[in-house]
Amino acid sequence: MARLRVFVNERPVDVARGATVRDAVAALDHGLADLLATAAAYVTDGVGRQVDARDPVGEAGGVFRVVVTARRAPAISKEALRRWPKAELHVHLDGSLRPATMLELAREQHVRLPADTPEGLTLALSVQGVHSLEEYLTKYQLTLAVMQTAAALERIAYEFVVDLAAEQVRYVEVRYSPLLHRPALTLTQAIEAPLRGIERAVRETGTRVGLIVCGIRTLPPAMSLELAQVAVGYRSAGVVGFDLAGAEHGHPAEDHRAAFALAVQHGLACTCHAGEGDGPASIHQALQSCGAQRIGHGTRLGEDPALLEYVVAQRIPRVSSSPSTPTGAWWTASPSPTNIISRTRRSGSARTSWFAWC
In this structure, is the dihedral angle defined by the CA atoms of residues 231, 254, 354 and 35, taken in order, positive or negative? Predict the structure, then answer.
């Protein structure tokens, strides 16, 4: 009988044609399959939509994930989770401002914000109900508006580390783009300012921190190369990686491959946002053209079974947060006051990476 290859929890499984989703799960793990008969687990497809375990798997290449809920064990309190030691490998500095700090900086810099209270500002920056990566990114225009001085960058970086340390985050890699702080600051100033804040917070908290700088897809590739040239000079000062962020569709990563090559040449690790606002081809391009060692989000990886199998076989980390049911392809905001618009910094999420960079 002909057999089909599908993927369960990102592992390849061969099943007979006509097999159900539960059959595929059972081929991987009978214990997980048994949980599907209770309220303790359910199955989603490759973009996070819940599916009936009794449905047929369909064609080859199907992607399924088994989600085990907290109902199978005693509930864990938020306070218990807060006490656990954690690592965070994908968080954006410009999405992690304290609302009160944002308001204070706005008053100092005469920047107009859409609200004048922390609660109102958190609501204004919520990404609930947005439907595209491009729409999501517009929220960063508000945070960046108050991040155009060295003092602001230093303060925000300092508070970010202090707040994570209070949540028992022992290691964090935080990213941002110095390019988005020009012309107010030079690239050197825009790198040194957060490093000063991080250094001070590290001394006080003991939390280890690595800084990742991001090129921007929508800016000229020459700017990414310029950023890489400056950033490699800070490799021993706390800069651990080079990334590419921004709107994906119509802005191919391969245009910025010279920046990645220079970063690798000088010992920086490389990651790349891909497969979120564009299809799996963008992930392939990030890996093959840019030499990315990690993929940021990679939500649409499951649309290309061969690529998914390659990523699994090569153990390429896909650093991501939790999928949002309303948007399917990406993520919602955390209610945490220290992370008002960043992709949900779910304290303790183990789905980050197999390795760290510093």
Answer: positive
**Lookup: tokens for 93:** 């500095």
Spell out the domain ranges in the chain.
3-72, 78-319
Tell me which CATH homologous superfamily contains domain 78-319: Metal-dependent hydrolases (3.20.20.140)
Q: What is the DSSP string of 313-335?
A: HTT--EE--PPPTTTSSS--B--
* pTM (two decimals): 0.72
pLDDT in tens, 2-12: 788 989 988 89
The dihedral built from the CA positions of residue 130, 134, 136 and 142, taken in this order, carries a sign that is: negative
What proportion of the chain, given as a percentage, has pLDDT over 90?
57
- Helix H or strand E encompassing 74: none
127-131, 170-174, 192-196, 308-312: least confidently modelled range: 127-131
* Second CATH level (architecture) for the domain 3-72: Roll (3.10)
Known catalytic residues are: 276
127 three-state secondary structure: coil
